[in-house]
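Fold it.
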Amino acid sequence: MADRRVALVTGGGGGIGAAISRALAAAGAFVFVAGRDTGRLLETVVEALAEEGHAASTLELDVTDPESIARALGTTGPVDWLVNNAGIAESASIAAMIERGYGRVIQIASSAALGGYTYVSAYTASKHALLGYTRCAALELTRSGVALNVLCPHYVDSPMTDASVANIVRRTGREETDVRAFFASQNPGGILVTPEEIGAATLDLLSGDRTGVVLELIGGSARTVDEGPVLRSTPS
């Protein structure tokens, strides 16, 4: 890309966050890989990116703590691309993006934002809230140069799914391969979504001028739920 963007990926130490960090760094962005633990996991990601010739840095950030957010932003300077991947889906303010007239925010939600599932009511409620927030904010900010979009992946081949599989195996005695196949069968695409798919979709939306897009990742492909409004003010 012509101008190096500064990206911040919350929950960047592993799984989906690590894949997104790799995708953005490979596209030429300087990536702050953020999380509460800047030890082994985050360092592993950043070291891997450095070995590939990409620019990245660890960033200690607890998205539940406003003071931690303020300290982190004092370290990063202006952020162009913000990916809210951390589980709580709360991160730094976008006020500075509005003042500069440019910014891209990606919310990593879930297929749970588009419907309901059993036994995950609190999780589903949080994802519905994230989706609703983004839809409204995208409408409000169409003239600001700041775009907000949402990714809604179904079951992902990630540590979270690994933990769910292990829990079912422990409770039921079923074979791990059978449980994993069951999760894959629940996705409309019939396979688990890969972290790399999420990374690629994130980069595509960050690099463009669309806003309010809701993209459902179904396993092997994606479908657009909302096209979103037109971003009417884009920087030169």
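The mean pLDDT is 91.
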